[in-house]
């Protein structure tokens, strides 16, 4: 099974994915951004736009996620924003067309909540404001309302634990790990955030 966690930037995809991985036995996080950044490093600077526009990223993600899903002992969790209908159909539809059991979840929140979350990120605190993420909030929120992007999970008033538990219940995944105590969770959350700063 492949659990695709979609959502606007700031919706909580990465933290949800890593907490779901911790609480589900043999779960594996596969981050498509890694392939995108690898392609960027191979291309001249003037060719480094949105890596989702690179055809070999889209085809490579389908191939790699299919391989990961077949090899994994548990669910493969994919935290990735994807809001173009044609790209969604090419990637998620392509995986389903190859027989991969993709469970798609779109984390939603109001633009105000998303902006607040983005401004509280460690990268912003240390002086790097993610203007790409902030400038794409309205586009992402509007696109993800569509039926194509179900199952929708409103997150404005939910903790990461509650989001994880809702996804696990919907996907039929037993949670073997317990909730963390708040102080320990904040340390883990900080560690996950540091690992995912993109400068």
TrEMBL record:
Entry-linked Gene3D superfamilies: P-loop containing nucleotide triphosphate hydrolases
UniProt superkingdom: Bacteria
InterPro entries assigned: P-loop_NTPase
Protein name: Tunicamycin resistance protein
Organism annotation: Flexivirga endophytica
């Amino acid at each position: 099974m492949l659990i695709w966690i979609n959502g606007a930037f700031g919706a909580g995809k990465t933290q949800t994915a890593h907490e779901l991985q911790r609480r589900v036995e043999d779960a594996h996080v596969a981050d498509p951004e890694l392939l995108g950044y690898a392609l960027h490093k191979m291309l001249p600077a003037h060719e480094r736009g949105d890596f989702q526009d690179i055809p070999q990223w889209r085809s490579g993600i389908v191939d790699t996620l299919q391989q990961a899903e077949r090899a994994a002992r548990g669910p493969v969790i994919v935290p990735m924003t994807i809001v173009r209908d044609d790209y969604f159909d090419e990637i998620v539809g392509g995986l389903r067309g190859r027989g991969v059991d993709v469970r798609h979840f779109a984390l939603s929140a109001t633009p105000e909540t998303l902006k607040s979350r983005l401004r509280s990120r460690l990268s912003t605190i240390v002086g790097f404001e993610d203007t790409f993420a902030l400038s794409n909030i309205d586009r992402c929120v509007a696109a993800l309302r569509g039926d194509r992007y179900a199952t929708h999970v409103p997150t404005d008033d939910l903790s990461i634990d509650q989001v994880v538990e809702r996804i696990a219940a919907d996907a039929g995944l037993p949670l073997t790990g317990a909730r963390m105590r708040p102080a320990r969770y904040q340390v883990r959350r900080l560690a996950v955030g540091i690992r995912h700063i993109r400068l």
